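In response to reviewer comment 3 from the previous cycle, which asked for concrete evidence that the modeling workflow produces usable outputs, we include below a single protein chain processed end to end. The sequence was submitted unchanged, and the resulting structure tokens are shown without manual editing.
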Amino acid sequence: MTEKTNTVCDIDGVIIVELQKYSDKRGWLIELFRSDNFPQDFSPAMSYVSLTRPGEVRGPHEHVRQSDYIIFTGPSMFRIYLWDNRTGSPSHGRHFNAEFGENRMAAIYIPPGVVHGYKNIGSVDGITINAPDQLYRGVGKLDEVDEIRHEDNPDSPFVIDRHF
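The workflow returned the following structure tokens.
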């Protein structure tokens, strides 16, 4: 794994790589994934794109086995929230947030047990891409969802600010 992380996150195992846009007269290109930026055993199993409206929140939730790989390139800006919920982790209990998207593109590797979510803090619809290392609901979508949805718990300690 090469050291390409530009943003320091003090949650153990989280890797944030700020992405570069390479432009020329034809347009532009962004490298979304490079295996040399992430743990050797991380291999995306699927990918999907989602649109989040301005002011809307996704999460917070965590996975038991799945690592997420979320890409923020715009066209909006997002505030990202992370909490280390792993008992025994050297950074257990730590919280991190930062803003990524059109003005500061990034790819974030989030290991299992790290609670995560984000809010579109911009004024336009925002797009994210996720390439997790597990299939949603397993092969043939026959398994239980590997997700603990903290947003469904009104007493959750993991709260994303719902106000601008």
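The radius of gyration is 16 Å. We consider this sufficient to address the reviewer's concern, and the full set will be provided in the supplementary archive.
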